[in-house]
Amino acid sequence: GAGVSQSPSNKVTEKGKDVELRCDPISGHTALYWYRQSLGQGLEFLIYFQGNSAPDKSGLPSDRFSAERTGGSVSTLTIQRTQQEDSAVYLCASSLIPSGGDNEQFFGPGTRLTVL
Amino acid sequence: RKEVEQDPGPFNVPEGATVAFNCTYSNSASQSFFWYRQDCRKEPKLLMSVYSSGNEDGRFTAQLNRASQYISLLIRDSKLSDSATYLCAVLSGTYKYIFGTGTRLKVLA
Predict the structure, then answer these.
(1) Cα–Cα distance between B103 and B100 in angstroms, integer?
(2) CA angle B29, B32, B35 (to 5 degrees)
């Protein structure tokens, strides 16, 4: 079946503009995660959704970042007034249930954001 | 101290060699551990979960050392196709995965 999809795959924007990144998780997956990966770095946790609720927004770097999820499916990550330090790959992942064990996180291909 | 730490490498090894990576974690209450593989400019993919008793999948062996708070990944008979970055992940609490920065492996012909 279809995996996690993200759009756009690449986004180049000017400093100060707003951007919206989209994630389509695997159908039926209740847990959805957003991560950020800067060049040569590991994955930085941004936010976690269980259904449409976001019980943990602790990873969002600033109030310029926000995310929502609707219908227990599609999620959008919005970055307002982008800064150059926002340049990174934004990865979305989904899993059937949130807890660990054998519950695998499936990642999307990511959106590569470049802020000029 | 970072919650999850890895040696960034690169580890350059010849084909056929055995190579091992470690990943240390700081939260002694962590219960679930994973190794992911990430190819250049691609998304991470789960390689294997790490079980308390250790587990093996073909040429790959994962182990957990709770006393010293680290997990390891051993790759036997390295192939050129094993060249990638290997990320460890630790489940902190019930849903939050903390990833290491990754260890880069280059298998040389």
Answers:
(1) 9
(2) 130
CA–CA distances in Å: residue B72 to residues A62, A108, B49: 35, 26, 11
Please state, in angstroms and rounded to a whole number, the distance separating the CA atoms of residues A39 and A66.
22
A→B contacts (Cβ < 8 Å), by residue, are 31, 33, 35, 40-43, 45, 48, 50, 56, 91, 98-102, 104-105, 107-110
- The beta-carbon neighbor of B32 closest among A100, A107, A110 is A100
In angstroms, the CA B35 to CA B58 distance is 15
Whether B98 and A45 lie within 8 Å, measured CB to CB = yes
**For the segment A65-102, what is each residue's pLDDT rounded down to a tens digit?**
999 999 889 999 999 999 999 999 999 999 987 665 55
